[in-house]
Amino acid sequence: MVAEGERVAIFHSIHKVMNAEACLKLKRAAILLIPAPRELGSDCGLAIRYAEGDAEQVEAILVDAGLLPKEVFRREKGGFVPVAGD
What is the number of domains present in the chain? Predict the structure, then answer.
């Protein structure tokens, strides 16, 4: 579901992740709403997945919209490595 090198953004609530998805799709960012990986223990159960190469654009859109994720992880060596968080 999450390929090596891809990022996963976790949010505090289902409302926030849905708003983030809508905002990113409006800006035509290359993202996908996915079930949050179990290893990450998301409270809302959903996450936004995007490519490492799209990270700057995706994260800038989220910052501008005031929709910062709770945490961002990168898939690395079969696990998840924290990249950022609020």
Answer: 1
Q: Domain of 12: which CATH number?
A: 3.30.70
> Which tokens belong to 58?
């995706």
Does residue 41 form part of some domain? yes
Q: What is the per-residue pLDDT for 41?
A: 77
Q: DSSP label at 37?
A: P
Task: Please indicate, yes or no, whether the overall pTM of this predicted structure exceeds 0.70.
Answer: yes
Examine residue 85 and state whether it is found in any structural domain, yes or no. no
Cβ 39 vs Cβ 68: under 8 Å: no
| φ/ψ (deg, to 5) at 15 | -60, -45
Low-confidence ranges of the chain (pLDDT < 50): none
Residue 84: beta bridge partners? 72
